[in-house]
């Protein structure tokens, strides 16, 4: 699959993105937002899956301001996790959202695109998908087990497009009190749908991962696919 370069809007350079293309175009596009492990094999597989659903998938390298081309393996030992957390802690998330907006703008005009763009993020990307819902012009946003969203509820009023939150009940990074704050803070928001998946842990939708749960992932992915089909065409 092709890799593309996207210019940063602040003039500081350009960043790479993995692209997976559907069999038929024109098609809507989905900006796939990485976990803390970079645009690794998992993100590429997820992008390929979105392309198989009939959408253009674009997964930008959001660690590029620190190190380009990061691809870490969460199952390959503590050193990979240590590097992942260091990169996450070193990320300027405001700049990451600017890079997402640049990716969204690029995806709208790609060859074969129909102009509609959604975001879909996992873990760190789930948090950034919420931020994208509040700060970008994406047509829809999907957050899988986003971390720290309870601290971003003040931005909920800026969310104007559909947003799905997939929350893992046993998520060690999003404890029960954080989940309660999120659900209460977004209750009644016409654009937000929040779903809690009982008995599953963080990363339950990472196929082949230690927390993979086929039933919860299938239900969550079905909800995601329905929203993408409705909004992107």
Count of the separate structural domains: 1
Low-confidence stretches: none
In order across it, which strands form the biggest sheet?
1-2-4-3-5-6-7-8
Q: What is the helix tally?
A: 6
Q: Please tell me the overall pLDDT.
A: 97
Enzyme class: hydrolase
Keywords: Hydrolase
Organism: Paracraurococcus lichenis
Pfam family, one: DLH
What layout of secondary structure does this protein have?
Blueprint: E1 3-7, E2 14-20, E3 27-33, H1 41-52, E4 56-60, H2 78-90, H3 93-108, E5 113-122, H4 124-135, E6 140-144, E7 163-168, H5 176-186, E8 192-197, H6 214-232
Parallel strand pairs: 3-4, 3-5, 5-6, 6-7, 7-8
Antiparallel strand pairs: 1-2, 2-4
Concise summary:
The chain has 233 residues and is an alpha/beta fold. The protein has 6 helices and 8 strands, in the order βββαβααβαββαβα.
Characterization of this structure:
It comes from Paracraurococcus lichenis. It is an enzyme of class 3 (hydrolase). Its EC number is 3.1.-.-. GO terms for molecular function: hydrolase activity. Pfam families: DLH. The chain has 233 residues and is an alpha/beta fold. It has one domain (3-232): Rossmann fold (3-Layer(aba) Sandwich). It is built from 6 helices and 8 strands. It has helices spanning 41-52, 78-90, 93-108, 124-135, 176-186, 214-232; strands at 3-7, 14-20, 27-33, 56-60, 113-122, 140-144, 163-168, 192-197. Strands 1-2-4-3-5-6-7-8 form an 8-stranded mixed β-sheet, with helices on both faces. Helix 5 links the parallel strand 7 and strand 8 (192-197). Helix 3 packs across helix 4. The protein is globular, with a radius of gyration of 16 Å. The protein starts with a strand and ends with a helix. The model has no long low-confidence stretch (mean pLDDT 97).
């Amino acid at each position: 699959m092709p890799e593309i370069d996207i210019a940063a809007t602040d003039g500081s350079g350009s960043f790479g993105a993995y692209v997976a293309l559907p069999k038929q175009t024109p098609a809507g596009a989905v900006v796939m937002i990485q976990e803390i492990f970079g645009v690794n094999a998992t993100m590429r597989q997820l992008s390929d899956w979105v392309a198989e659903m009939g959408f253009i998938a674009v997964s930008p390298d959001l660690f590029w301001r620190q190190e380009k081309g990061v691809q870490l393996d969460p199952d390959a030992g503590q050193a990979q996790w240590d590097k992942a957390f260091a990169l996450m802690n070193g990320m300027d998330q405001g700049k990451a959202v600017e890079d997402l907006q640049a990716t969204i703008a690029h995806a709208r005009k790609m060859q074969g695109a129909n102009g509609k763009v959604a975001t879909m993020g996992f873990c760190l990307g789930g948090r950034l998908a919420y931020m994208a819902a509040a700060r970008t012009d994406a047509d829809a946003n999907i957050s899988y087990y986003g971390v720290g969203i309870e601290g971003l509820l003040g931005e909920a009023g800026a969310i104007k497009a559909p947003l799905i939150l997939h929350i893992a009940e046993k998520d060690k990074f999003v404890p029960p009190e954080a989940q309660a704050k999120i659900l209460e803070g977004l209750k009644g928001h016409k654009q937000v749908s929040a779903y809690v998946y009982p008995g599953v842990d963080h990363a339950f939708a990472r196929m082949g991962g230690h927390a993979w749960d086929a039933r919860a992932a299938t239900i969550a992915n079905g909800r995601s696919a329905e929203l993408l089909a409705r909004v992107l065409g």
